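Review form for a predicted model. The reviewer records the input and the model, then writes brief findings.
Reviewer: anonymous (R2)
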Amino acid sequence: MSCILDIDLDYFNLIENPEKRLRELLDWGNRRIAFIVEKQHKTFSRWEYRVKRGTLTPPSHILHVDEHHDMMDQKRNTNIANFMYHAMRTWKSSRVHWMVHHQIDSPEMWLGDDVRELFSQRFTVGSNCPHGWPKPDIVSEFTSRNFVSNKLLQRLLETAKEFMTTKQRTEMEKLKCRTSRSG
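Model under review:
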C-alpha cells in the first residue's frame, strides 16, 4: 500500500508565512512533486491511472492538505467537490487525513448516513499530520487558480520549484504567462 501527499494551494490562503509552510510540507514528504493540475478532480484520475498501470499501489493513506474536504456530494462523476469521496469509495481501506487550519464545514453535512458510517473510521481532521503518518510515495499539487490570488499562487509555485522536474518548471512558466495575462 502507498501514501499520497495531496496539496491544494488554497490551503495557504489564511496561513501565516505560506511559502515557509509549503516548504515544510514538501521537505517532510521528501519527494518530487509527481504532477500539478489546474482542475482538482483530475488528481483522482491521475492517481487511479497510476494504480491501474502498477506504478502506484492502492493508497492506504492520503494526507489531503486543503481548505476544503472535497466530499461535498456523492455524484457518480468525479468533480472538484467530490474527488476525495471517490478516492475513499474506490480504495476501501484507505485512510484520509484532511489537514486544515480553518475548517469551514465537514463531510458529515454533505454525505448520506450510510456513507458517513463507512467513512467515519477512515477519515480524520486536524491542523497537523497525525503522529506516525507514513511518508508519501507520491506528491500531487493543485493550483486552485479560482481560490488563490495570482500573487500568492506565483509565490507558492516559486517555492515549489525545487521539488519539480525540469518539465514541470517549463509548464509552470507557461502557467505564469497565462495567469499574468488574465490576472
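Findings: The CA atoms of residues 166 and 172 lie 10 Å apart.
Further findings: The two ends are 41 Å apart (CA to CA).
Recommendation: see findings above.
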